Amino acid sequence: MRYKLMGRSGLRVSELCLGTMTFGEDWGWGAPLEECRRMLLSFTERGGNFLDTANNYTNGSSERIVGELINGKRDRYVVATKYTLSTEPRDPNAGGNHRKNMMRSVEASLKRLRTDYIDLLWVHAWDGLTPEEEVMRGLDDLVRMGKVLYVGVSDTPAWMVARSHTMAELRSWTPFVGLQIEYSLIQRTVERELLPMARALGLTVTPWGVVGGGVLTGKYSKGGAATDSKRAHINAARVTDKNLEIAAEVQRVANDLGRFPSQVALAWLRQKGSDIIPIVGARTASQLDDNLDALDLQLTAQQMSRLDAASAIDLGFPHDFLELPFIRSLVHGETWELIDRRR
Questions:
Q1: Active site positions, annotated
Q2: Contact 304/268 with Cβ under 8 angstroms?
Q3: What are phi and psi of 30, to 5 degrees?
């Protein structure tokens, strides 16, 4: 495993991140403690040091298990967790981005993780209510207190991320170092605004859902159903004819290479940019090992083109409009092809 710098910081993180939403069986589909131990051991033996959890994953069991497994070797790992999602459905302040929930969530996470600091705290999702200056000042306070070292943002519109990040920079508060989003061969709409924004701001991208909830592994077929109890409503929306066609192309490339489809899906994502660190999760150590074997898989330009074509999306306005030759000539005259473009 090689390492990458996290955003515009000096923090070194492994080129794959171990997702721990499957740590714990509270939601009916996770892994027990000893299987989690085997997964972490396998990840660590490959050189992995980047762990991703959240305050509400498996009702808090994920953080507790991570805390138990890294106890005594805490500083070896870069531990990322999240706040935002509600932990008490009837309490209006038990969820959201506001300072009260931020502070109480971090204190609870520190206890479950058995640590006195969090390496990277993610804003888990935009709540649509809390002013961005409250969020960014609260995150900066946590950094100044030493309870959090770096901050990132997840599942938030590009305009809000850009506004919040720029505000933090202008006010000498702690800016974001990373962006966590769903990104895979069946979810490429992030290429419209979120990815270009992340690159402009220097944010490392840590995609989740990298195998499309199992769709890109060949798990589902036409007319099949997604039955994972807690995730059924999410996965069912992914099992579409278009996505199954994409999965079929992934399978064909995998067959050509003698590899698993999940490895091909991961390799495609890793080759979409050096600033991308996929989050890989599994329910068993053997599944995780299969995913980690994608580290030595390099797709050819032709294979990348096949997958790009099968999963292509329209970028929409204004992107497609600005790419029109007539519009480009209006903007640049006859000089476009003479310009060495940075990106």
A1: 57
A2: yes
A3: -95, -165
**331, 236: one domain:** no
Q: Residue with structure tokens 């980690």?
A: 292
CA distance 128 to 126: 6
Amino acid at position 96, single letter: G
User: Are residues 19 and 41 both part of a single domain?
Assistant: yes
- The per-residue pLDDT string of the chain (343 residues; one tens digit each, 9 = 90 and over) reads 999 999 999 999 999 999 999 999 999 999 999 999 999 999 999 999 999 999 999 999 999 999 999 999 999 999 999 999 999 999 999 999 999 999 999 999 999 999 999 999 999 999 999 999 999 999 999 999 999 999 999 999 999 999 999 999 999 999 999 999 999 999 999 999 999 999 999 999 999 999 999 999 988 865 555 455 445 555 678 899 999 999 999 999 999 999 999 999 999 999 999 999 999 999 999 999 999 999 999 999 999 999 999 999 999 999 999 999 999 999 999 999 999 976 5
Taking a C-beta distance cutoff of 8 angstroms, is the pair 102, 141 a contact? Answer: no
Buried b (16+ CB within 10 A) or exposed e, 181-213: bbbbbbbbebebbbbebbeebebbbbbbbbbbb
> CA–CA separation, 87 vs 139, rounded Å?
20
Residue 92 main-chain phi, psi, to 5 deg: -65, -20
Question: ∠ CA(218), CA(194), CA(156), 5° rounding?
Answer: 90
Could you tell me if 234 and 329 lie in one domain?
Answer: no
**Domain that includes residue 284, residue range:** 3-312
180, 206 contact by CB (below 8 A): yes
205 and 139 fall within a common domain: yes
* 261-296 b/e (C-beta count within 10 Å ≥ 16 → b): bbbbbbbbbbbbeebbbbbbbbbebebbebbbebbe
The answer on 106 and 138 residing in a single domain is yes
Q: For the whole model, what pTM was predicted?
A: 0.94
